[in-house]
TrEMBL record, chain A:
Keyword Transit peptide applies: no
SUPFAM superfamilies registered for this protein in UniProt: Cytochrome c
Residues of the Cytochrome c domain: 47-133
Descriptive protein name: Nitric oxide reductase subunit C
Gene3D superfamilies on file: Cytochrome c-like domain
UniProt cross-references to Pfam families, sorted A to Z: Cytochrom_C
UniProtKB/TrEMBL annotation, chain B:
GO term, biological process aspect, one: aerobic respiration
Similarity section: Belongs to the heme-copper respiratory oxidase family.
Record-annotated Cytochrome oxidase subunit I profile domain positions: 11-476
Species in which this protein is naturally found: Pseudomonas fluvialis
Locations listed in the record: Cell membrane
GO cellular component: plasma membrane
EC number: 1.7.2.5
Protein name: Nitric oxide reductase subunit B
Keywords annotated in UniProt: Cell membrane, Electron transport, Heme, Iron, Membrane, Metal-binding, Oxidoreductase, Respiratory chain, Transmembrane, Transmembrane helix, Transport
Transmembrane segments: 20-43, 63-80, 92-115, 142-163, 170-190, 202-227, 239-262, 268-295, 307-328, 348-367, 388-414, 437-458
Pathway where it operates: Nitrogen metabolism; nitrate reduction (denitrification); dinitrogen from nitrate: step 3/4
Source organism, top-level taxon: Bacteria
Class of the enzyme per the UniProt entry, highest EC level: oxidoreductase
Amino acid sequence: MSETFTKSMARNIYFGGSVFFLLVFLALTYHTEQTFPERSNAAQMSEAVVRGKLVWEQNNCIGCHSLLGEGAYFAPELGNVFVRRGEDAGFKPFLQAWMKVQPLGVPGRRSMPQFHLSEQEVDDIAEFLKWTSKINTNQWPPNKEG
Amino acid sequence: MTIANPHLKFDSQAVAKPYFVFALMLFLGQILFGLIMGLQYVVGDFLFPLIPFNVARMVHTNLLIVWLLFGFMGAAYYLIPEEADRELHSPLLAKILFWVFATAGVLTILGYLLVPYAGLARLTGNELLPTMGREFLEQPTITKMGIVVVALGFLYNIGMTLLKGRKTTISMVMMTGLIGLAVFFLFSFYNPENLARDKYYWWFVVHLWVEGVWELIMGAMLAFVLVKITGVDREVVEKWLYVIIAMALITGILGTGHHFFWIGAPEMWLWIGSIFSAMEPIPFFAMVLFAFTMIGKRRRQHPNRAATLWAKGTTVTAFLGAGVWGFLHTLAPVNYYTHGSQLTAAHGHLAFYGAYAMIVMTLISYAMPRLRGIGEAPDERSQTLEIWGFWLMTMSMVLITLFLTAAGVMQVILQRLPSDIDGTALSFMNTVDQLQVFFWLRLAAGVGFFIGLACYLFSFKRRGQEVLTGATAASR
């Protein structure tokens, strides 16, 4: 680099640039915060949804599945599983049955462990996933296969 | 360490050694679990239910994070005293924290392997302050608190050293990066009930680490090694360092927005995230120019060829993995189809290996011969073996990335592109059946990586008087 561009100029760009963009980031975060209640339908977040999130976390579901595209990519996306598996009419009974029959025991197939969840816990997860599917994700995923 | 080591400027730098040795032991563990997962990708029920995939993955990713942290800490204990031109504030504290961190790390990994995750959550009282069960932050809350305590003690120790000593640009940037690492980790304790909010702040740890403050750490470590092996004037190196970290933060902070596209955050992030993250390759490209220019201008031929190769290699691989492979899927219209596919995994592997695994191995390559009392460089045979390890690991990782990229592209075509109206999209499970061949090839490349790692570890084998194997030799 040429001698006209000095170390102190580089340092000033570093300090000035990072502080400036950090402040912009904080401002945009403030704005984002204002949109969360509406975009996530926070009013619909029942106690069951909150309990369901904890069951989701305490069984490390994210270690195989993805949720809104984040997590492991070993098992299906579950952010829209409510839509894929029967919505209001069919989703809860489907999930209850699905969780009971694991592991399927098909040789060579990716296997889901048996988590021994109570009916209440599975119901809570179902509520959590139903609520999650209604978050405004800018139309992601592209189709119902997730 | 009772006898002074003539190859160290300060005796207290010796505390770096156990950090490096333990880092490499964890690295070995990480790769073993990577191979288990690679097999589970093709033989779905391999080791089921003994080690389900989620457990293997948690061990694989957590070992990565922890060994890199050990590597960064070792690097700081080595370079801060040398830069500050004085002994470390408290070598004893550094040794105590080593054992605290190592014990906590081993116990946590054993917890993952021996107790079902829900049981571990119950055992550690997760409900009191739920922080578990989020990707990369799976550690029990108590472990997270332990990490904070270790980080505080560590920052105090190197901070005091720095305050009392010479303040160079390299050491100040290293310190800033490490403080940032600790500060952003605090967001791991914030787990809002609202998933959209939870995901948003989760990235304050993950993105602002790897595409933010860790780049400061990487830049400082690279600059330190380049000063040492090239003898180029410090003024020049430091100017480069400022340019690199300026670019890293200017692009990387708002670049966080590329994670906010589809998790419930507003549309503005589609633009901000795309524009700023599209510029994130710039600092990595600057690092390539930096390393090659400095080595081109070198005033001496350093006898440690391996360290020079690592320094060049880390910048190129980081540019490819973090820069090019990141750019491939960072624009919102592309990411709409690629988000959370095998392409994400491809990018993650090459970026982490190139930027962070390799910068730690760069520093180890430079510092370890001195820490072991050998001198500036290990003997020719050891270096040749180390260079074999470099190429085998790096080329294998490039292959892993290419195979996962191919798998990701196919996945997008089969599963994501067809619309609901067509109804021809394959389900996730049917899609992965179609990708088997890529996953077999990836596994083969993984075995190649393991062989490379074995070469690398055997390069530490002591020749002559006593014969010990790999990592254990280094711990003496």
